[in-house]
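Limitations
The structure tokens in this dataset are predictions for the assembled complex, not deposited experimental models. Users should treat interface geometry with appropriate caution, especially where small molecules or nucleic acid strands are included. An illustrative entry is reproduced here so readers can see what is and is not provided.
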Amino acid sequence: MIEGTSDNFENEVLKAEGLVLVDFNADWCGPCQMMKPVVEAFGEEHKDVKVVSVNIDDEEELSDSYEVSTIPCLVLFKDGKEVAREIGVISPKKLAKMLEK
Amino acid sequence: MQDKIYDVIVIGAGMAGLTAAIYAVRANKKVLVLEGKTHGGQIITTFHIANYPGLPKVSGVDLMNSVYNQAKELGAEIEYAEVMKVKDEGEFESVITEDFEDGSDEGKYLARTVIIATGSSERKLELENEEKLTGRGISYCATCDGGFYKDKPVAVVGGGNTALYDALYLADVASKVYIVHRRNEFRGNAFLVDKLKTKENVEFVLESVTTKLIGEKKIEGLEVENLSHEKRTLTVDGIFVAVGRVPATEIFKDLVELDEGGYVKAGEDCHTSREGVFVAGDCRVKSLRQLVTASSDGAVAATEAVHYLK
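Predicted assembly:
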């Protein structure tokens, strides 16, 4: 999983071709810790999707610009554009279903 | 089909459900736990659990991962699929999940006994766009999301202890905190109200109901109406909803008896109105909803299910 920062976000996410899943999370957030292995397993299974983790405490600017106000928050980008968003804990199946959108 | 028949199917992988699974597998039963989200239940939002005997300061996540591993290592099967329906099929109950399609075996399991352990979820305001704006200004957990509202105005809706604690927490973070409550008095502890009254940035908006969420892409305000039908718009960036919890029992209403609040009717023996169906944890009618009582219910329900199977 790539650590997303305000320095690399443009290259890793916005200018990336294809699908990128961004996981906005924080260390103190229990539901985020529960989602972490689910997101990692998803990345292993879907090699065509790049997975980027953004720590909202370190990257306040990024979470603000995507209007993240509840975590965990998963945002799926396609060719740099947001195509789907899920908040809270979700099952592996619901996460995979984001790809259908 | 044979492999999809279980002695015990537990619905929900929180503390009650996973404890039930532990007790049932240890009694040599074939056990499946079905969970629609992640395992762990409501307690995973708690950073430090202070009142669980023997494990002071354990985090909800660490405790529940440990309980999950324990259930799994003992032999319980755990599947992540939301249960949509439980139907009477004579000798068995059939448990249908979101994966079920007509004519296939996928997403259908047969249970000799069922333990309902679905817990509860936050009560909503029931206003237009509420779901769309959840995570975009609407939150049901102040300690989880309060940090996003540093120096911004927010509203807390509700009159119980959760609302008052939320407001106290937010008063130290946000620039302004409105407490919107439909009555003139609070159900919550008086000392919390007194404490809030000393905070300069807290304003009480009493005898008022919420009527409208303002904002298209994110919350920009909350419209409220008082007893004289006067409307007022509070300019806020965040709305924290603390109007109680509702049991997640909607899908069981035709299977077992529920009380008027939607809780599954059962005594301390966890027997529901239907033979072979048991209930454990927060979704059962009871006076104290805590981690220990959820765990206790799980043990009782599983033991009763095992007796029933004999």
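Some entries come with short summary sentences. For this one: The longest helix of chain A spans residues 30-45.
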